[in-house]
Structure formats: C-alpha cells, structure tokens
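Let us begin with a simple case.
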Amino acid sequence: MNQIPIINFKKMEDLLLRLGFQAAQRKENHVFYRHADGRTTTLPNNPWRDLARPLLLEVLREIQLTPEQLREELEKRASPRL
C-alpha cells in the first residue's frame, strides 16, 4: 500500500473547494463542508498541525476520493501553469 501524503488544513481546504465543496458551517476549530451531490465532511482547523493519517483517510472516504486521486490532485496544484 502506498503511503498517503501528509497535508495540512489549508491544502485540504483548497482541494475541497476545487472539487466543488462549500464551507457550510464553522464552529470553533472545525469547518463543515457540503457538496451539491450530498457528500459532506468536517475538518479541524488547526493551522499549526498536519492532518493525521487516520483522519485524512476518513475524509477521503467521506468525499469518495482514493489516496491515488488525492496524490494526483495535489500534483495538479503543484505543477506550474503555462
């Protein structure tokens, strides 16, 4: 099994927004995201910490994205635009 990349809240939030999710609710240190097709997930907003692997796997399951698709989406963002 390939290692899942470790990312922080900001990178995951950027990814969710690019995938069509919207921040539906913010409570203290958590943000609830909702997609038009009904998918939902919640992220802890801790700017000084990375998301833990078990939490990241749970979020990927909730948004129906595989670790490979996550890696591809992160690479798209990292590649320079022409």
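The second case is a distinct protein. As before, the sequence precedes its structure tokens.
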Amino acid sequence: MNNNESDMLKKSATYSIVARRTKENALGICVASGSLAVGSVVPHIKLDTGAIITQGLTNIEYGIEGMKLLTLGFSPDEVLKKYH
C-alpha cells in the first residue's frame, strides 16, 4: 500500500451490512461510505444465490467472480478461501 492509498483509508470509511430473513427468503445489502458512488461497486447480490460486499480499496472483480462461483454451486466458505 502506498502513501496515497493509506491517506485515502484514513479519510473515509465504508460500513456494510448483509441481512437475511429466512422466513421470506429475503436478502438485502446496505452500504454507507464517505466515498462517492460506492453503491455501484461494493454490493453484489443475486436472487436465490447470495450476496457479497467488497469494500476498502474495492476490487469489483471479487464481487463479480465471487457471484459466478456461488451461482456454480461453490459454498460461501469456498469462495472466501479462493480470494483470501
């Protein structure tokens, strides 16, 4: 991480929540941040599949590729291990 990235992290924070209501099979994501337009890159959600939130210095590919793996039947733990 360079100094510019470090300074950027100190100036803003992102808070995210994924919530699931099993009775209705409902899933939702909420993101709040000091950075502009995070809602276009941080949350990834797909009906009957799952939800992924990428934040910090966001790498949108984690969400895109992670959702593909979930769709293919990988477990959440398997997806996390692939990118961790």
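The CA atoms of residues 21 and 56 lie 26 Å apart. DSSP finds three helices and four strands in the chain.
Keep these points in mind for the review questions at the end of the chapter.
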